[in-house]
Automatic annotation (TrEMBL):
It catalyses: [G-protein-coupled receptor] + ATP = [G-protein-coupled receptor]-phosphate + ADP + H(+). One of its GO terms (biological process) is heart development. It comes from Scophthalmus maximus. Residues 640-705 form the AGC-kinase C-terminal domain. GO terms for molecular function: ATP binding; rhodopsin kinase activity. It holds the Pfam family RGS. GO terms for cellular component: cytoplasm. ATP binds at residue 406. It comes from the Eukaryota. The keyword ATP-binding applies. Its EC number is 2.7.11.-. This is G protein-coupled receptor kinase.
Amino acid sequence: MPVCVSDCLPARLPACLPACLSVCLPACLSICLCDCLSACLPACLSICVTACLPACLPVCLSVYLSVCLPACLSICLPAGLSVCLFVCLSLFLSACLSVCPCACLSACLPACLPVCLSVYLSVCLSICLPAGLPVCLSVCLFVCLSLFLSACLSVCLCACLSVCLPVCLSAFLSFCLPVCLSACLFVCLSVFLPACLFVCLSVFLPVCLPAGGGSKGRSWKWKEMLRFPHISQCTDLAMNIERDYYSLCMKQPIGKKLFQLFCRSRPDLQNYMSFLDALDTFEEKSDIERREFGISIIQRFLMSQSGQCVPTGPRHEQSCSQSLELDPCGDVFRDCREELHQHLSGEPFVQYQESMFFDRFLQWKTLERKPISKQRFRQYRLLGKGGFGEVWACQVRATGMMYACKKLEKTHVKKRQGEAMALNEKQLLEGLDSRFVVSLAYAYETKHALCMVLTMMSGGDLRFHISNIGAPGLERDRVCFYAAEVCCGLIHLHQTSILYRDLKPENILLDDNGHIRISDLGLAVRLSEGSLVRGRVGTLGYMAPEVIGHEHYGMSADWWGLGCLIYEMTAGQPPFRARGDHPSASEMERKIQTQREEYSDKFSKEAKDLCTSLLTKDPKQRLGCRGSQWGEVQSHPFFQKINFRMLEAGLVNPPFKPDPRHVYCSDVQDIEEFSSVKGVTLNQTDNSFYSKFNTGSVPITWQNEMIETGCFRELNIFGPAGTRSPDLDWSQNPGSPKRSLMDRIFHRHTSDPATEDGKQKLLPSETYMKSGLLRTTL
């Protein structure tokens, strides 16, 4: 043991560590820790390594720990010591072993270790540690970080990922571990990994995080951040909010859920809610299942003899039965649904506005309208760079939801006169709600930048998938799927009179499930009904002939772009430029306006026909621009296997799902640093523009975030037996505001104008639970 440790461990490690290892641990465990069961001790090699360990230990370390180690321990070590190796010298951790000596790992570690952290440790540490550390030390650090960044630092991990290791290890490990082991870890981090650790955290970890939310990643103060104001503080909002049924109870997700809760609390409205639930389920059924399920809906809710029959149902029974028989895939219950909502928008909606459910909606809206600043987010790795700034991965502290923050440098925007473009993109995005277009969640400003917080798309863009993975181009099923989703995105834009004008592979992004979204609406424009626009806008290789020719054009330019996209996904190159060619701008213009594209054997008959129809030079004859508009695009034989109804509902599985362990973009080191602009002065006119940009949360996206991350479910608590909780009780005065440390030191009172900000202390959610109040959710 003394020879082995002194040969293997770095000289800077404390001298007591080898002594502790040989004294406190059995020889077999010391062997594993000192040299990772390698050639240093051949006695163990013949038993353990050949049977269990993979040849490339540093790379397959996660496999070794999760799969091979239990078998190894059962052969080489006493059963009771299996815990010790997993927690990395857990014999030193007397506190942990005294609490849970046998169940520590099986109960604590697998449950506490987040998926993103295990991916980070298996990918990042296997790359960085073996380069500068002995194998034995790599294992030591790997397991220590696995334990303490998941179990001991589970709270800190949610709060400060970017600074967790350098800051929190010094705070926690020195208390949780004996001095010798703490010193071991800190020497390793400070000597062997002076810079690599920051690169790992900022580059690898955010890519492995899921795009969605959940309880992981929340700040430990998340309930305080989302604490409801007392209802008496919502009176101004109650007076000014738009009292429209379709806005409050259908479009806004939280408003819809609370209205449904209200209706379910009323016996006379419960059948209406059951009917609406059945109609929503009907829309999710496959074409084969719709007829049978539709018949059951008619029998339950539209027949007068049924106990669940709604009052408006019987007069629609015959028409719905006929529609279901003729076309079960159509909108069978449309008229019935409209009349049902017309009824609910009357007296039930009036009564809802007088209920505690509407008051709770006002509380949510008050939280939604709170000012937004950069302190609301954690910032992670740089994702890319655009014309006006950079895009960074970020996370909402209160909910854990991951987003992409597009930062527009104020000086760059002003120098290039991009104010109108930036404001245009922001205003267009906040009015959209499509699963095929990136969503805007927040818009705010910092001292130097305008920030748009957008949907996190961690799967990379189509340019990367077409050009950097395997042979140029994509498989046919992927081409068809992506083209169908882009088609749906264009239709959603066109239905709101938005002309996109910049369709190209770089602007089509994949999420972590493999679905795509259209991004970057900086060049998009909203057209009034029947109007056209003129302007040379877009990327040259994807511009339509009428755009290049300075003609007036409408939505035809986007269908040309779809043809270029399908062609490039299939052929691996744009239609009018071969790979490796760099023609001049004039040559590209000539080819687009006069030359016909060529098709290789990669194109099926249907793909060739679709591209030819979309790349027609005359916009009046182009597919998508004729009489039936986008309907003829979706009905093309190329999309024969696509069920657009289910695709729009998000019920079609993508043919390709990005690997969360891979980074589908350029290395962060390849992204050039965004240079600053000198000589640009910001004035009052600029501040006026910034105030139009800085509008905070986008209602629908913010409310979806609350629901998807579980915050709505955990916070939407009412009193027992359907009564109001204290924060909803108009008869109770709100509590006094929480006094800060400085207030208490200088004896300031809440009535002091210098400290009174109008915000009242609110009753925390935990108080409701302790007093026996109920959690009421859908």
